[in-house]
Amino acid sequence: DRTLVALGDVSGKGAPAALLMATCRAVFEASAADAEGPAALLDRMAAVLGRALSESDAEDWRSGLYTDSDE
Q: How many whole angstroms separate alpha carbon 48 and alpha carbon 53?
């Protein structure tokens, strides 16, 4: 069995922060299933989120912790 654990946080409050967190979560969920490990997953997320967030004017911050364990 494979266990994935992710913790995340975004700056701000209200709808903009909620939208940013929802975007991060959706990208994580879409990418996690077939990623070849933590580095590949985070690289893919950085590429997708970088493109998506570079189009906005927001200076939002996001941070996260991810771990992957085979049991």
A: 9
Contact, 27 vs 51, CB < 8 A? no
Q: What are the pLDDT digits (tens) for 19-63?
A: 888 888 898 889 888 888 888 888 888 888 887 776 655 566 777
Q: What is the 3-state secondary structure (H, E, C) of the chain?
A: CEEEEEEEEECCCHHHHHHHHHHHHHHHHHHHCCCCCHHHHHHHHHHHHHHHHHCCCCCCCEEEEEEEEEC
pLDDT of residue 56: 59
